[in-house]
């Protein structure tokens, strides 16, 4: 596709509102409302609007998505189209759609464990799954992780693909990952977890999520396996 990764003023056609102090989010939101976004962004918006499930397939680079995919997120998840300050997280615009990450790694699973040199994969995935997908309202399905294909036998790679093929057949019926609902936070207190919910979980062993952990141990595998709460 030769998709342009960098978010620039070129994403807006016609005159911008404030060329001297260009603010990308505000300018692209206005352009989206007026039908003045660049054609490549508009085409991706069309695809997203029609999709029931969005699968982000990528090789993990530096513990995150490659630059071109991050650029797609920067440019296509436009303010207004994909989220607003009122419509985000569990009240997000895409709350009727599902999304998931499917990626290959360069390190073995043991290296991404709580005791591993790379750290807990649940922590690595939190910014992507909560801060991007769930932020836009998506029901986030458990990730499909292909542990280091270059370092395993060809038979194991074939088994991975077969498992993925089988999973795809039932993907629409899967239970999404758990994220703390938006109404659990008090907007009048800087969007802090409500006191009654904090009290309710005070005696529990684990925090609510990787991000909202209440100073407790992180809930195991909450960003990797569906239904973990």
Oligomer: single chain
Bulk shape:
globular
Which percent range describes the beta-strand content? 5-15%
Give the structural class. alpha/beta
CATH architecture of the domain at 24-175: 3-Layer(aba) Sandwich
CATH superfamily assignment of the domain at 24-175? Flavodoxin domain
- Poorly predicted regions: none
CATH class of the domain at 24-175: Alpha Beta
- Summed over residues and divided by their number, the pLDDT gives a mean of 95
Count of runs of 4 or more consecutive helical residues: 6
Describe the biggest sheet? 4 strands, parallel
Query: Can you tell me the CATH topology of the domain at 24-175?
Result: Rossmann fold
What series of H and E elements makes up the topology? HHEHEHEEHEEH
Task: Give the tally of β-strands.
Answer: 6
The radius of gyration computed from the alpha-carbon positions, rounded to a whole number of angstroms, is 19 Å
State the end-to-end distance.
39 Å
Helix percent band: 25-40%
Outline the structure in words.
The protein has a domain at 24-175: Rossmann fold (3-Layer(aba) Sandwich), CATH 3.40.50.360. It has helices at 24-34, 39-50, 67-76, 121-134, 154-169, 195-200, and strands at 53-59, 98-104, 139-140, 144-146, 185-186, 192-193. The mean pLDDT is 95. The chain is globular and about 50 Å long. The protein contains six helices and six strands; from the N terminus they run ααβαβαββαββα. By secondary structure, it is an alpha/beta fold. The strands form two sheets. Strands 1, 2, 3 and 4 form a four-stranded parallel β-sheet that branches.
